[in-house]
Amino acid sequence: MSRIAVFDLDGTLVDSAPDIHASLDRLMAALGLPGFTRQEVIGMVGDGVRALIDKALTARGMPFDEASLATFVSDYTENAAQETRPFEGIPAALESLAAAGWRLAVCTNKPELAARHLLEDLGLARWFAALGGGDTFPVRKPDPAHLLATLAKAGAGPEAAVMIGDHRNDVQAAAGAGVPCIFAGWGYGPAEMAAGAPVARHPAELPALIAALRG
Length: 215
Ligand SMILES: O=C(O)COP(=O)(O)O
Ligand SMILES: [Mg+2]
What we know:
This protein is of the alpha/beta class.
């Protein structure tokens, strides 16, 4: 069975914080509330959009509401690729993995439509055999079923897979699915989230690290 590398999106493939930050601050301004610093936004990313909006509203003493979530999702889906770019070295790493016979997939807590638009706008979509978004299945990371369902969509199983992510959710989903994980040290998660997983400091290290896990 062909080997497959499954990537997280935000903070792993793409530096998406600028557009998440801009959309969130537009929502807050529309609600008459103060915006956030970039570090605050990065600290709220990882558990999907519902959690992001919940954390943002809670930080301003407001209850969660569905209308704010819907406003954010539609604004962000439109504007996800304004400033967001692949991390330096990611396109080359994907090309090198594909050339070495790896199939590639994306497992992200970002909503599927926004993730799809973003990958297309950045010219990355062609690399991926499957995408499992935060709303594609009834569950999402850290639930290992999110990773397993993404693999199934690509016609693959966990025994041939490696996961690459920048958040504890990625490490936990991979561990639960029996898939080795590489922690993206260039991403948004603090180093302790690696929890013992090997840490790549730069995307250029990925082809060798991934091959070492599933030779
Ligand atoms: O949308 C999020 O909160 C995180 O998305 P990710 O799973 O691609 O890092
Ligand atoms: Mg991430």
